[in-house]
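Next up, sample data:
>
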Amino acid sequence: MRPRSRWLSSCMNRTACYTTSPTFFASVGANPDVSLLLVKYHRTPEHGAECFDLPGQAATVNVKEVCLSFEKYWDMHAEWLCGRWGGCADGGGISGKEHVKAKMKDRANGDFYNGFFRPFRASIFSAWIDPSTPIWGASDVDEMWGRCARCLPWDIAPQFDVLVPTAPSWADDILVFTPGHMMFYRHSDDVVRELMNMPHVRDMDSFMQDPFLSHISEEVEWSHFTLLNANLSFVTFPAMVHQSIHVSTLDGVFGFDGVDTSAMRKHQSEADALVPLSMTSLEQRNDLIQAVRTWRATHQTRSRATFSSEGQEYTVALHDGEFPGGLWFPKEFSVHYQPDYGRAPKNDMRRYLMRRAPNGVIVQRVEPMPPAHIQVAGAQWTMVEGLYNHFQSEKYQPYWDLPVTAIGTHEYLFMEKETGIEIWDAQGGVTFSSVLPVDEANGGPQM
């Protein structure tokens, strides 16, 4: 079966990829309708093209591994860019390609997240990608994919050059950006050609004299250029699980709203006797497990079109460099819009922002999303399925740890972002726990 999409991930060294890789690869393997090209290289020139093993990788059949030395990695990039430019002029006593490569290597330490050339990965590494693949995407390894068959908007994807996964927002001013940790593109040279109009890469002189701003370029300069380039069509779609409490499985990832975390307490039952700390009670675990099972049983495939007859649309304006909220990058690169909540309800809606055609208007579309209310130990929570979990803040918490073995088919990975991690078996037993100690007297973290 030809995969519906090819995803590319790059791994720079063992440390950056090691902790999350068992869970990441298990989630990739659970999505047989997509494939992953894993590009490994060392960031320092003294290393060769060593194919260091990552936990969980070997058992994943839909992963293709490519191992490159520091020199080969940048040689491929320089050769590709010179080819797009129609050749590279010699300079500094070396060939044009070597001149460009030297500049790339000089800037490599600033490209910490491999973002400078992220939108061109499928083209640079085209030797390992089926040319008939319709959609390709870039993904970090500190993630857990959910069920792609249910959560990717396959039916509308071919209509757009760029597909932007987002975390849901109900703000009055919504920031829009193309996240570096996950992005999708139409697999077409037309898209590459338009992206080559980015000032930093449009020709050799610009590339040599105008470096990217910083290591966050893919979320800053590339995002700004992509969204405001009227020749590129794009659509944003809700994808990332953003809630503080979430449960990840090999058949879906889920976030939970309406949770009073202060009402939850550490519970120690006989079933948990061998676990030092547990954030949850057996009743809570069993209720959550049953809710996830019920959802999956009734949503094995995408049950409705992404855009239904019940959807509503209205035009909005993109504001350039005016975002009023907090940012992790210079404000001049921000892009945002203001939804009209008078045109459609704020809650219980899935929101899509799009430019359907070159030079087209910007449209906000909302689709009804009836809330999935569940009962958890007598309290009402709301469950939302997402495309993926990104352990963006969790991996910097003092509790952070994951098993060296992958999560199993019938296991549940529970996280509360501020407090800890648990893995449950199908009966609600805690098989792994890494939780901050509860200090009730001092008001310390507790569930």
